[in-house]
Amino acid sequence: MQQTDKKYVPLSDKAKQVILGSILGDGSLKIQIKNSNANLQIRHSEIQKDYLLWKAEMLKEIATDSSISVQKPDGYSKRNKWRFSSRRLPSLTELHHLTHEQNKLCIKRTWLNQMTELALTVWWCDDGSLISYGGRKGVFCTDGFNEASVKILARYLKVVWKINTIVAHVSAKKDGTKSKYWRIWIRSSEELKKFLRIILPHIPLCMIQKTLLLYKDSQFQERWISEVIQLSGYSRSAVVAEYKKKKARWNAYR
User: Fold this and answer.
1) Is 49 exposed, middle or buried (0-12, 13-18, 19+ CB in 10 A)?
2) What is the model's pLDDT at position 71?
3) Does 121 share its domain with 246?
4) Rounded distance, CA 158 to CA 97, Å?
5) 170 and 64 in one domain?
6) Which end of the chain has the least Cβ crowding within 10 Å, N or C?
7) Greatest Cα pair distance in the chain
8) Residue 88: which CATH number?
9) Cα dihedral 207→210→216→219 (10° resolution)
10) CA 248 to the chain's CA centroid
11) How many domains does the chain have?
12) pTM of the model
C-alpha cells in the first residue's frame, strides 16, 4: 500500500523532469478511485534494473523504503519486472492535473514545453532506439498514443529542440489482430547526432549504448566515441567497454 501525504511539498526540478519523461514512456501517474492523491509507478524489465535504480535515486523525495520491488510474471509478461511505486502526494496530483484529462495522459504543448534536457533523456531511454545499419537512424516507439498526439510530440521536437522528424505508422499483430501504431522517426544521421548531443550530458552509463552509433570507418567511429566521452563525462574505458559489447551484439545479429 502506497503511503499518502496530505501536506503539499513542491517537487524538485530533477524529480519533475524524470516524471515527465517517464510518463511518456514506461511510467504512469494515476489517481485511484479510493484515493485523493496521485502516485507514480514505473516498470522496467530485468535487463533494465540498473536504469530503474538510477530513476529511483532521482526520485528519492517521493519514495518510501518499499518503493522498489520485483513484479512477478503475469498475463502481460513472462519475466520478472522491476517496479518503482511512489507515495501518494499532492504535488503528484498537481502534476497529474497538468498532464491528464479524465485520468488519461493527454499530450499537450502546455506541459511538454516544461520539459528540459533531462526529461528528453528519460523519454529516449524509455522509448527511443537506434535503428538501421550501424544504428544511425532513430525512432521513438510512441505506440501507446494516437496519430494526433504523436504529431504534437513531433512538432514539439521540431519547434523546441530543432530536431526534424517524420511521423509514420507501423503495422503489427497483437492478440491475432492487426493494428496500426504511430511512431516518430529520426531518419537523418545529422539530425540524430544533433539530438544525441542534447541528451548525452544527462544519460546514465547503463543506457549509454542508446547513444553509441556504429561506423565501419574507424576514424568516424573514434570521432563519435570521443564526442560521447566528452559530452557524457564518463571515462574512456567505460564508454569503449559499452561500445565493444554493442558491436559484438550487432555482429551476432548480422
Assistant:
1) middle
2) 79
3) yes
4) 26
5) no
6) C
7) 60
8) 3.10.28.10
9) -70
10) 24
11) 2
12) 0.92
Sheet with 39-45: strands ordered across: 27-30, 39-45, 81-85, 68-71
Residue 108 lies in a domain: no
Query: Is the pLDDT confidence value at 59 over 80?
Result: yes
Same domain, 97 and 131: no
Q: How many CB atoms are located within 10 Å of the residue 68 CB?
A: 17
Q: Is residue 112 in a domain?
A: no
Decide if 159 is inside a domain: yes
pLDDT digits (tens, 9 = 90+) for 82-125: 999 999 999 999 999 999 998 899 999 999 999 999 999 999 99
> Which residues face 41 on adjacent strands?
28, 85
- Give pLDDT, residue 172: 77
DSSP string, 206-230: GGGGGG----SSHHHHHHHHHHHHH
Number of H helices, E strands in the chain: 9, 10
Owning domain of residue 151: 117-253
Phi, psi of 139 (to 5 degrees): -150, 140
Say yes or no: 47 and 86 in one domain: yes
The distance from CA 185 to its chain's CA centroid, rounded to whole angstroms, is 15
Considering the domain architecture, whether residues 67 and 191 belong to the same structural domain is answered as no
What are the pLDDT digits (tens) for 184-193? 999 999 999 9
Same domain, residue pair 193 and 221: yes
In the chain, the DSSP E strands lie at: 27-30, 39-45, 68-71, 81-85, 100-101, 104-105, 128-131, 137-140, 166-174, 177-186
Buried b (16+ CB within 10 A) or exposed e, 190-215: ebbbebbebbbebbbbbbbbbbbbbe
